[in-house]
Design goal:
This protein has 351 residues and is an alpha/beta fold. It has 9 helices and 16 strands.
Amino acid sequence: MKNSEYPAWRCFKIRGAYEGYCLGIESTADDFSIGIVSFNGEVLANVIHAYVPPEGGIHPREAARHHAEVAEIVIQEAFRKAGINPRDLRVIAFSQGPGLGPCLRTGATVARALASYLKLPLVGVNHCIAHIEIGKLKTGARDPVTLYVSGGNTIVAAFDSGRYRVFGETLDIALGNCLDVFAREAGLRQKPGEPFGAIIEKLALRGDLLVPLPYTVKGMDMSFSGLLTAAISLLKKGVYRLEDLCFSLQETVFSMVTEVTERALAHTEKKEVLITGGVAANKRLQEMVRSVAEEHDANFCAVPSEFAVDNGAMIAWTGILAFIHGITTPIEESFVRLRWRLDEVDVPWVS
């Protein structure tokens, strides 16, 4: 993604506002989603089709095959909901990374095809930054410390000097992945609209015994692998109820990320805390982070649940922000980036 001399974005500035629509494609992991967003931030459509593996975790090639099979249907549904046609679009945005290679490449191929056929500029979007930007759009947050927690990422970040800076992150697996693996070991089954995290949250509400589990915060970073191993070991021993283990797992991992978020908040002295990503929909995590925000006289902001999961609307909106600041991605440079850190990306739309 780079500053382009493509002049078209300047043509949409009318009476101080930009007019037009962006179609965003999200395909980093198990969800294929198309979002259509106006240049003033209105979400016209946000259609998500999830790949649910018959067993085990995400199989990248099978997920990519799913994305390719449903792409046309999801695109048609998005246009139907948005009430516009493809010729009304002004730009195409897509998740360029980080994520699973086969899944990312499927989304990128769809994006290139649309951009080429419609003769529209293309914008490659960093998936992690998109989660932050949709959270800011939907909550009104302006300059928050952000806790981004999902199946693939666990990051505490805040803006400074032209980029989002990472103040703390996982050293091994993501928090959401920790919950997912435990759920699979417990024999739980997810289904569309109810991921493993939501199932564990329900079970945790029926737990009341706090089982000791490893609590690993190293400086500003966190480690979840040892905790997961301990929880699975206790599960297999059958000493504790599943509800109590779910309760204890949640309390421990959420306490870890909340501690790091509080440290970042104290260091930066920012007045907002934003929680985003798939795990952000968890009410217990929201409660814990809200408590920290209140202690520091900061506003607490939680992304709405429909935008917490991976979705096309967040890609479209971030694509708009980049596009109106002159950033586009030439098709010949639109290769996917599997390990694209958010602190590698300039964000000129934030000041």
